[in-house]
Fold this protein.
Amino acid sequence: MKTEEVDRRWTTDHPELGTGPLLIEPCTSEKYFEQERERIFRRVWLNVGRIERVPQAGDYFVKDLVVARTSLIVVRGRDGAIRAFHNMCAHRGNKLAWDEGGQVRRFTCKFHGWSFDLAGKLVGVPDENQFFDFDKREHGLAPVATELWNGFIFINLDPQPKETLKEFLGELGELVNGYPFDQLSASHFSYAVEVKVNWKVAMDAFQEGYHAPFVHKESLAYTLKSKENPLLHPITVQLYRRHHMLSLYGGNPQYRQTPVEKLAHRFGPSIRPQEVSFDLPGVNPARSPDWYHDVDVIFPNINMGPRRGTYRTIHFWPLAVDRTRIELSHYFPRAESPGQRFSREFARCLHRDAIMQDLGTLEQTQSVLASGAMSHFVLSNQEVCVRHFHKVVQDYAGSYESFCAPGRKQPEVSHA
């Protein structure tokens, strides 16, 4: 990277964000968390999985959304359509599906035996003639708005969504549209962990490269940073109305791979990304030869990382003001040889170790945020995506300043 690229002031390109510190209190406030629950997670489009989880008619999976106080059934119907329903029997409210997923011809409640077809219609009621003025057509499963984007299944809990999924994804959806997610989803590995941390604090750790030379000094740092860019300044930053992306640097020409790394890289993407065409304007938009991967953040809780020959997703699901379920998946084409399988397993272990290093900082951070010793986060130019994310949270849930403790002096904020 050239010196002017490394030193670019991304934040000043967006004066609407300001350059002042951010309040900590909304990351510890129960009151603010409740507003996030109602104004964000019950109103916007949320990704709950990919179509590969429901390839055939009758295939389904259950997605518990603690933040929205509900559980969903996502199922492929006999007509091929993918639908979502509240996981709740229309009789007495029993949870209809108790497992994580499977294959069924119909859903049958374990409480009183009511059954529903794959389109959510009530088709069976034991002792039906004992009900009064009863019409089965009026007692189907409660539907949830469902749309697809590049094989990703999105739902919206608002009974009447204010916009389509395409409108919600906006420019970022258009720029990344067409990335070969389907070709790279033949195999994947996943992790899920519950962490004692606010969901925003967790999100922040994965949308900047400033931490990498320190948190990942024993894993990825030496493969990524270089003499020209020792602190991993981003190659590109693009901010949109709700979403944003940054391209991360990974072009250390001095790095020498270990024998195991060389072997893994020989058969597939591992410690170093492989070459791939750059036909999409939203993938490595700068066309930099030093590109490692993109971080596409789809509001409110998805961190998606297109890379060369692979991609990863991280979902941050709030459980409470100080608890988050983090779900990570890394996707690859199907391995066609033992060498490719070895390469994927090596990448899996490398990714796992790097994620564990990231997660190791989160609970330590949250454990002291409520102490009151500090009232604000101070952000650098490198953390412009963190600043943008918090602005969008406030656009939906309300201004952070309205939650500042009475009498607490706020620092002067520059909007230069």
